[in-house]
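Lab manual, section 2.4: Encoding a predicted structure.

Procedure: take the sequence of the chain (96 residues), apply the prediction step described in section 2.3, and record the output as structure tokens. A sample record is shown.
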Amino acid sequence: MKQLPEIVELKVGISNLTAKLIKHTNKTAMYLRADGYYEIGTIKRNAKDYTFPSGSIIEKGAFMYWNDEDFGKIAKTTSNKERAFELFNEFELSGK
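Recorded output:
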């Protein structure tokens, strides 16, 4: 299984926002954003190879960072470190 990226560049309204991998298992990941928020959720992987119009490719099995539709379902955000670890455990124990 492909490794999760240590640093992710987020495509949100805040320019140059990155997130650093804090903790993960085979099922759940926690990233700390540069603005102090934690993002925790079930790991998503690309189901098949995908080629963008630009020619860049995302390979099957590659980690896919959560998108807006994922939050509240398979991912959550918090600025509280203790709550972030609670959420991590909840995702790890859940069937999601």
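Check your result against the sample. The helical segments are 81-93.
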